[in-house]
Protein 1
Amino acid sequence: MKDLLNIKKVYFYYGKAKALEDINLNIKEKTLEAVIGPNGAGKSTLLRVISGLEEPDRGKIEFLGERIDELKAHKIAKKGISHCPERRRLFFDMTVSENLDLGAYTLKDRNKSRELRNFVFEIFPRLKERRKQRAGTLSGGEQQMLAIGRSIMSNPKLLLMDEPSLGLAPKIKKSIFAAIEKIRKEGTTTLLVEQDAALAMEVSEYIHVLEEGKIEMRGTKEELKREPRIKEVYLGI
């Protein structure tokens, strides 16, 4: 498998505060990789830098061999990177179907758009049942399903997912992560940021541990589960 995303020596500051330090990351195509770490570690900032919502202060980011770190967010989206942000960012006065349509704004192929919508309804049957319902009236779990579905509608080459389980009940978390596994099996490369380390490690092939803006550890889930500090701090073993 070839590299889809390459991040090389990236630094990012909020004012004088260092949020990301010397980040080096390679994401292989058709994989699901996760970034775990405590609150304030820089996980969400990392995704914002990749998607162009923030510009790195140093370093470079390449996507499919092309440098993207100086591009605006909408141009990065058109190249095939879709960002499903923390806290959903839905259009609450619009229906489920209208929110999904907005996710497909970069697609010109109507047949592909229809195919993607059917896939979203397949992995999230509740959205099909509520397709004419306004997003603001959905439950928290249903809103998260819609946020993920909207991100899929652009047919991304790389899907960035920020804290998809945030604030959800355990049963809903499991259904969300079952859908994430189906997305991976369909061949969409996914970079997942998640505070629930146990859940993230269950579905991911490779995990990066981000603490205080630095990647302190990385490896397969089998490798990390053998690390005493991971077991103590992240898995509670």
Protein 2
Amino acid sequence: MVKNHMKRISMPRTWKLDRKDIKWISRPNAGAHGLMKGMALETIMKELIKCANTRKEAKTILYNKEVMVDGKRRRDLKLPVGLMDVVSLPEVDEHYRIIINKRSEIDTVKINKNEAGVKPCKIKNKTILKGGATQLNLAGSRNMIFKKGEKVPYAVGDTVMLSLPKQEIKDHIKFEKGSKAYLTGGKYVGYTGVIESIENDIIRIKNDEGKTLETNKRHAYVIGKDKPVVTISAK
């Protein structure tokens, strides 16, 4: 059985929290994000967004249906929340996107209401199912299935922009030279830039300072064609 809490001293290094604060911290349920890439909603509320000071306050806010994740009202304190998820407090019109900052930590960036209605999802895999249907495996453990014969102009590494909460594809960003990429891992985690080249497993991007960064292409998350379509404030 998975424990409800963990010691702060043992929490993942990606959690942007003080290890010497109170001894225990909430462990997220198993779900779309693993421990390295996600936190419990309760922890996001108390430690990052700071809309609650205690577990009791967080529970009250959730039970009053005052918090939305990806456009849906949530009541689970231990719901795993991670990269690119949108956390909204509709009562005060505040919205946040989960990002990975330049210290490789889970962080938040404040966004506006319009941006809170979309979510970029990277295509991790593409397979043909029995019967000829096509399945896309997206970041965040989402799957999309297209019927046999249906046009599927998406490739592994591309990003699809989903509407929230319906999660319908509204736009498509190709993983190609000239696209804007956000690095979610590796030596240059948290940086953004324009893709200069893709050679085998290596990608080179030019950041805003004009410096060329080289890393494994699995770390690249395309977020725009000419400019980012979502706010990524990598600190």
Protein 3
Amino acid sequence: MNVTKLEMFYYKSAFLKKCQMIELMAICVIWVAVAMETKKLKLNLSDLEAKNEQLTLEKRDLQNQTEDLRMNMTKLQNQNEQLRNNSDKLNKILAAIISYTNFPADLFCPDGVCKTCPKDWIQFQESCYFFYNLGSPWKTWDQSRQLCQSMKSDLVVISIVNVYIFHFNLQTFVKNTIQYYYENNQGYWIGLQKVNNIWIWVDGSPDTLGYWQNPGSSENFAYIIQNADLNQSWIQFRNSFRNRFICEIKALIF
């Protein structure tokens, strides 16, 4: 069978068209597959991004929680340290309170907070001193002692036990604290009285200092004046004479 050139051309053209169609279909199939895979990848990427965002939020939340825990731990450590310090302070206060025969809590701890000295008292060394500086009428020796005792204290004692403290420190303390008032012979009652012709301090100890300005007097009670040398600053006088006075109580050392 003879095939003309025209027929050959026709067959060849038809074959080429068929191949092109097949190739185009293959390309379409591939494109569809690629498009579907791309869409799938985009969906996966979007899902991964959402998960990553969620993980980022969870990480930030965990970091915040960690920081909160760290701050709470620091706060608890500070509170624990404060409690330890308070406990140590309370133990010291308790030990100091136990050292008193009858601790005057209303005087040292009026608001539930204990202080070394009561209000309006002055600490010196291991004692607290109250200087009665009100105006007249002043007090007799007995009245002065009663007022001191009403504050769980007593008139000041200047005995041989603290003579060195008195000489080198208390002298300046007293001189800087007591006030001149009315006249030179007015002073402050101290806890010294004559019992059976012997000068005795209110704590029961005998006086061995004798810082008298008027030794040999027949009077039975003593007070201290400001305008005099220390070793001549005590005046012997009668109980009915009215003066200011000095109270003394053991300080709450803690």
